[in-house]
Design a protein that fits this description.
The chain is an alpha/beta fold. It is built from 19 helices and 16 strands. The strands form 5 sheets. The protein has a 5-stranded parallel sheet, sandwiched between helices. A hairpin with an 8-residue loop joins strand 11 and strand 12.
Length: about 450
């Protein structure tokens, strides 16, 4: 399939010879051209399809070019319109521009002249579309600059992504919430042959059924209440690029059938439309649900699952790759603290011992909050949220010394933490008495409380 989408141009011209010349010229330049011999038929074509550009004569019997321009702007605001006439006046040019025309050309015109105007108009149309995609990316709530990880699982994933990227096969990314599914989807797109085209993302769980369908497939004016103009869907915007269907497991079963058709045939119909629209968008889907269970309960189509699961990718949760936590912490500290805030080894150990149910997103949020609130240049355990500090390693037994060695400093610190907790328990929480039991000065005892994240805010002193 040719991945270059042909721009659609509508010609509305009542002079048959001129209509034919324009059609042949523009088709020879590689555009998909539709034509009408009068304004009424031109408006009918505008109702049935979405055009990138319309070229219309002004003086026509019945419905004139100004009416065609008005209707084009009403039905499809992003369609650019070029006005053409042999009876041009300053007043008509001003009127056309006021109504939203892109440009105004006088007959007779040279072939190169019309080509230049058409090329500039479609270039502007393309820039508008790119701007829409960029704005959508800016609205994305979770984004990282890089995939970070040295663990074997993440290294395996990083080695796999370039291979996946070179094909156009559908990809199904699975992983817990916050594990970085969209990050991986963007990485696949950004190093693929489609990288110069749009990456369009939508969360299937964030929209009601009717709105989700209209966003994905687009609609024609009058398709439903509030459809005041024709609108392209995200599949069209993602043509020759990639579309990311996040939380695909939440997609209503009725829409699943329509998405299956797009994947299988490369065609779909906009809501309220009668024409098939051809599209070539690579589908990358993601979910935190067990889709095989959803198939058994009738919540997910088995045929769609196998169409999506051509290339399966699993992102491990953060608790399964704890060796990546220090790297991620460093990354987020640079992001939010601009390299001016560090973190103590003790605080890192507390973070490594935590299970991170919210995965990388939770870690990012924790670091951002700490950076905003801390008064120190070095983050200590006492700066960490209480839910992290409540998670402690197994202190019940000492590890055996083996040929692979042990971390003596950590073992001693774990023992010290355990004795401090025990002293507090024996002293019923009275810190002065606990310090006495450990033969420590009160100041030294409070320092240790804060160091291990056991104490309160007053122990910062």
């Amino acid at each position: 399939m040719d991945k270059k989408k042909k721009e659609k141009i509508l010609i509305v011209e009542d002079e048959q010879g001129m209509n034919e010349i324009l059609r042949i010229l523009l088709e020879s330049d590689g555009y998909e051209v539709s034509s009408a011999m009068d304004g009424e038929k031109g408006i009918e074509l505008l109702k049935k399809d979405i055009f990138d550009l319309a070229i219309t004569d002004i003086k026509m019997p019945g419905v004139d070019g100004f009416e065609v321009l008005k209707k084009a702007k009403e039905l499809s605001p992003n369609t650019l319109v070029i006005m053409v006439t042999a009876f041009g006046t300053t007043e008509s040019a001003i009127e056309a521009m006021k109504l939203g025309a892109y440009d105004y050309i006088h007959k007779p015109f040279k072939i190169d002249e019309i080509r230049i105007v058409v090329n500039k108009a479609l270039e502007k149309r393309g820039l508008r579309r790119e701007l829409e995609v960029l704005r959508e990316e800016i609205r994305t709530t979770y984004r990282l600059e890089n995939i970070i990880g040295k663990s074997p699982r993440m290294q395996g994933l990083l080695n796999t992504i370039p291979k996946i990227a070179q094909s156009s096969s559908s990809v199904l990314i699975t992983g817990e919430s916050g594990s970085g599914k969209e990050l991986v989807a963007r990485a696949i797109h950004n190093i693929s042959p489609r990288a110069e085209k749009a990456f369009v993302a939508i969360n299937c769980a964030s929209l009601p059924e009717g709105l989700l369908e209209s966003e994905l497939l687009g609609y024609m004016k009058g398709a439903f209440t509030g459809a005041t103009h024709n609108k392209e869907g995200l599949f069209e915007i993602a043509h020759a690029g990639s579309i990311f269907l996040d939380e695909i497991g939440e997609m209503p079963i009725n829409i699943q059938a329509k998405i299956l058709r797009v994947i299988e045939t490369g065609t779909f119909r906009r809501l309220g439309g009668t024409n098939d629209v051809k599209v070539d968008a690579r589908v990358i889907a993601a979910t935190n649900k067990d889709l095989k269970k959803a198939i058994k309960t009738g919540e997910f189509r088995e045929d769609l699952f196998y169409r999506l699961n051509v290339v399966p990718v699993r992102i491990p949760p953060l608790r399964e790759r704890k060796e990546d936590i220090p790297l991620l912490v460093e990354h987020f500290l640079k992001k939010f603290g601009h390299g001016e805030i560090g973190i103590s080894p003790e605080a890192i150990r507390v973070m490594v011992n935590y299970s991170w149910p919210g995965n990388v997103r939770e870690l990012e949020n924790v670091i951002e909050r700490i950076v905003l609130l801390t008064e120190h240049e070095i983050i200590l355990p006492g700066d960490l949220p209480s839910e992290l500090r409540e998670t402690e390693p197994d202190e019940g037994r000492l590890p055996d010394l083996t040929v692979s060695g042990i971390d003596l400093d950590r073992i001693l610190e774990d023992m010290e933490r355990s004795y401090i907790k025990g002293a507090l328990e024996l002293a019923s929480g009275v810190k002065t008495e606990a310090a006495r039991l450990l033969n420590l000065s009160f100041r030294s005892f409070r320092h240790r409380l804060y160091k291990y994240g056991i104490g309160s805010e007053e122990d910062k002193e």
